[in-house]
């Protein structure tokens, strides 16, 4: 094949293939744009409060106190660690799905978290 594709940036598999404008790894299911580094191929890059690029599975900390509506109220304090986030297209500006210890599953805005 004269036009050899690069290996997967996630698992280094040599079996990548093109699917439309994206490159895909059949071993780990990672998709990326061949022209733009290692970000997801969706064209949408989600950044934290200080500009770091976020990805699924990242650990983050809360950078400001957040009031929680619902049963019992309360608030999530600055510095609370959230492990294993998922990036989503949520309601409004909420683009992170996470489970916060003591509060359970919820959606957060990327503007209130910092990558660890």
UniProtKB/TrEMBL annotation:
NCBIfam families named in the record: phnA
PANTHER family the UniProt entry points to: PROTEIN YJDM (PTHR30305:SF3), PROTEIN YJDM-RELATED (PTHR30305)
Protein family (similarity comment): Belongs to the YjdM family.
Family matches, as SUPFAM superfamilies: Prokaryotic SH3-related domain, Zinc beta-ribbon
Annotated ranges, domain Protein YjdM N-terminal: 4-33
Pfam family, one: Zn_Ribbon_YjdM
Domain Protein YjdM C-terminal: 46-116
Gene3D superfamilies, per the entry: 2.20.25.10, SH3 Domains
Protein's name in the database: Zinc ribbon domain-containing protein YjdM
InterPro entries in alphabetical order: YjdM, YjdM_C, YjdM_N
Domain of life from the UniProt record: Bacteria
């Amino acid at each position: 094949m004269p036009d050899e594709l690069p290996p997967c940036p996630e698992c280094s598999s040599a079996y990548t293939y093109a699917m439309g404008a994206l490159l895909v790894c059949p071993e780990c299911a990672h998709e990326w744009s061949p022209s733009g580094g290692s970000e997801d191929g969706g064209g949408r890059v989600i950044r934290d409060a200080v500009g770091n690029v976020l990805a699924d599975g990242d650990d983050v900390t809360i950078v400001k106190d957040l009031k929680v509506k619902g049963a019992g109220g309360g608030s999530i304090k600055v510095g609370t660690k959230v492990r294993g986030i998922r990036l989503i297209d949520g309601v409004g500006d909420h683009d992170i799905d996470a489970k916060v210890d003591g509060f359970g599953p919820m959606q957060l805005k990327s503007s209130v978290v910092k990558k660890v």
